[in-house]
Amino acid sequence: PSDASRNVAQFGCLSLSDGVSLSFHNKEETYMKDRMVAFGERVELRCQAIGAPQATIRWKHNGIFLDKAETGDYQALIENGEMPVIGIGTTVSTLVIDCLDRKTAGHYTCVAENRCSEAIETSTIVAIKETDGDSEFASCPVQSDKAEVAPKITFMTDSVLERPEATVVLFCRAVGYPRPTIEWFEEESSDEYRRIINDERHLLLSNGDLMIRGQSNNADSRSVGYKCIATNNHGSDSMETVLIYATVGYFLLQSSMTLTRNRTDGLTEQIISEEELENWIVSWILYSIEGIILTITNFPIVLVVLFFAKLRQQKEFLIIAALAFADGVAGFAFLVAAVGRLIMVSKGTGKALSTFVLTTRWRCFMTPWVLLWVWSQPTAAVMLVVISLDRMLAVSLPLRYYFFTARYAYRLVAFAYSIMLIPIIWWLVDSYTTEPIAEVPSYCFVGHNFTPTDHPYFSKFLLFATVASVIMYIPVLIMLKITLAKNRTMENAVKYEKMKRATLALGMSSFCTFIFYIVPMAVVTLKLFENLNVFYLMLNFNAMFNIFIYIARFKEIRVGIKALFTCKFKVAWDTVLFNINTNRVYPGLSPNN
User: Fold this and answer.
1) Which of 140, 136, 205, 217 is nearest to 171 (CA)?
2) Which residue intervals define the domain G-protein coupled receptors family 1 profile in the entry (predicted)?
């Protein structure tokens, strides 16, 4: 057929961990355009679908389906069971109009669907180009249903990306009379193929498809070419496909892939239903509330320590304030993100401020909340490690540690804050130098700003640093018990009791980190529940509980916050700062020793 009679529409369906994504666009133009074709000409319409799982395709003429629904890759679904799969495949369907006349002209619709989402479709009008020689009622010769016709492959898999361990079904459906026989061949070398027969790994299905069972011992990322040949007495037709094996680390799925469509202004935007939009709005409101709580439970600690000189002189409070500042900035980022997204939603879908218009990763990086998150979240994780190291030093060398000045804390905090600039600059450069493709929504989650290779490092850094801080605190508590048991002099009682108080308070904070970060993160990572929103919210609970621990365990912070909020800035710190009651009997302490 001529180029004028071809029209190629492309759908995309990606069923990922966070939902289903479907989109379509034309390879040649923004939308499928109508076609004017000469009477009697052969027309071939080709529709391509990209999806996970593989999409099936069928056609409608003037609103009526021309064929029955195609069966999908259910055999692979049964074989794989609960095994995690990638399952992204490209399928192609071809509709041939051998002779265009008044009866066959009209409105043609390509419908793509899979088991993960509702069907989507796109259409074109194929009309007859009027010429002087055409009769108004001219029609093509009627062909008998029993007329012998050479085979034509009408639906097939073009390519599949899958794990080596997973079972895959490659589609190959053909029409023709007599009914075509379908054979499959596997590429062994360049242009050399080996005929496939039923064996332990391959199964030729009755509808023409080929099922390929996975191999657990095959962990290499590679591609294998296959050829499908349909044959009958009047000829043959063949199509080639490729199966790409990818290890988990080789292929990075993006949870941000979404249903998209092309707009008349040239932009691409995410498509969401009214229900999905309402869910987004509710989640953003919840995150704004969480952001407010994080902000008002952390910044007061920072203000109290910075405002009162007596507290600034104590290294423990400076380190606590540094962690609270990072957590507070993260909370403020939640608030800014929620408010910014809600404002974007209220502005509608305008070109300048559309929540769901796709943008580049670099532009996402430059959004205020992403910049705040990229610094605050890893910095807070580093500060947790710093606190564990500080406590380890305090319990192992208590008397020497006692005489450390505030300068020690300033240097420690400065190191923790500045060390994070190195990976941040690296991530910024990577994002900036990446090809500027509009591929992520404008509401910009953390992860949308990173390149696919950088984001796993960011996530793993947060998790590993947090887990390390909790694990490190176990020997801290053991060493604390040993150190206190060795202390038997009254003159060092204040020093040891102060160390004990700070270490136990920060130990409680570390326990909250385990309960409210590591546990929910494990649930989220392992996807133990269908709805994980509650566990995502729990990831920030530990930063909220810190203020209550500090107020309960540190009288200085308690008095400072009260003075700050009541505007009574003159505090008799001599009566507030930590002291020990020498009349109280402490285990292991005796004036006679």
Assistant:
1) 205
2) 297-526
How many Å apart are CA 547 and CA 533, to the nearest integer?
24
List where CATH 2.60.40.10 sits in the chain: 3-253
3-state secondary structure of 225: strand
**What CA–CA distance (Å, rounded) separates 325 from 511?**
20
In the chain, list all ranges with CATH 1.20.1070.10: 268-576
| Separation of alpha carbons 165 and 221, rounded Å | 11
Question: Residue 200 is which amino acid?
Answer: E
Burial 223-241 (b: 16+ CB within 10 A, else e): eebbbbbbbbeeebbebeb
DSSP class per residue in 523-550: HHHHT-SS--HHHHHHTTHHHHHHHHHH
- pLDDT, residue 216, reads 66
Longest dimension (CA), the chain: 124
Q: Given a cut of 70, is residue 21 above it in pLDDT?
A: no
Close Cβ partners of 4 (under 8 Å, ≥ 6 residues apart): 35, 36, 37
The angle formed by the CA atoms of residues 96, 262 and 36, to the nearest 5 degrees, is 35
Task: State the burial class of residue 403 (Cβ atoms within 10 Å of its Cβ: 0-12, 13-18, 19+).
Answer: exposed
Q: What is the CATH number of domain 268-576?
A: 1.20.1070.10
When pLDDT is cut at 50, 70 and 90, the band that residue 135 belongs to is: low
Contact (CB, 8 A) for 231 and 238? no
- Give 175's strand partners: 152
Helices (H), 55-128: 74-80
- Give, in order, the Cα–Cα distances in Å from 348 to each of 164, 415, 497: 44, 44, 60
| Termini Cα distance of the chain | 104
Locate 144 and state its tokens. Answer: 């008998």
Token pair in block for residue 316:
């423990």
Q: Topology of 3-253 in CATH?
A: Immunoglobulin-like (2.60.40)
Q: Break the chain down into helix, strand, coil percent, rounded to 5.
A: 40, 25, 35
Question: What integer best gives the mean pLDDT of the chain?
Answer: 79
CA distance 319 to 29: 59
Crossing angle (nearest 10°) for helices 493-513 and 454-486: 150
- CA-to-CA dists, residue 21 to 116, 131, 272, angstroms: 9, 44, 9
Lowest mean pLDDT among 148-157, 479-488, 553-562: 479-488
